Amino acid sequence: MYDGTVATLFFYLFAASSIALALGVVLGRRLLRSAVCLIGVLGSSAGLILVLGFEFIAGIQVLVFIGGIVVLLLFAIMMTSEGHTFEQRPSAARRVVGGIAATAFFAVTLSVYWNTDFPLVSKEGLAVSHEDVHAIGRKLLSNERDGYIVPFEVISLLLLAALIGGIVIARKHDPEDI
Question: What is the pTM of this model?
Fold first, then answer.
């Protein structure tokens, strides 16, 4: 797709933007801005996947995560947030617990990275054909024993229930007043 220099340039561009936006998600004081930074992180990771030559997986990343889950998260934030939600200041105890958890996660990630042998695989052996894409689509939409339509529908109902629950919790008046 690209020659080595351009692919390397795009890799570093997407990696740097992913790191910067991830810091925006974690360090942002406003919930809506953090959610928008999360969209950028997922878009940058889709760009990294695209640079690696896996166009189908990058498209799925954009459709499922950015197009579905994060947009639902944004709707939930917009519909349920009050003014005090947008600027949260966690207590010192929460900051300490969060710092310990983040440090532990970072240590485990580095340990796995250093102790894993990453074999090189040729891109030709991983090519996806037109028939493979159709087979994946049929499998995702199949209601037979080996299909995945039921888990997707259950997850969509769970997300809908969570959204409705968030709206009910954020109501400014009691349901008896209606």
Answer: 0.53
For 146, the domain range is: 125-178
pLDDT single digits (tens) 43-95: 999 999 988 888 888 888 888 888 777 777 777 777 666 554 444 677 788 88
C-alpha separations of 65 from 60, 105, 130, 151, 170 in Å: 8, 22, 23, 16, 25
Cβ atoms of residues 46 and 62 within 8 Å = yes
Tell me the two tokens of residue 28: 């942002």
Domain count, the chain: 2
Same domain, 18 and 79: yes
What's the CA gap between 117 and 52, in Å, rounded? 19
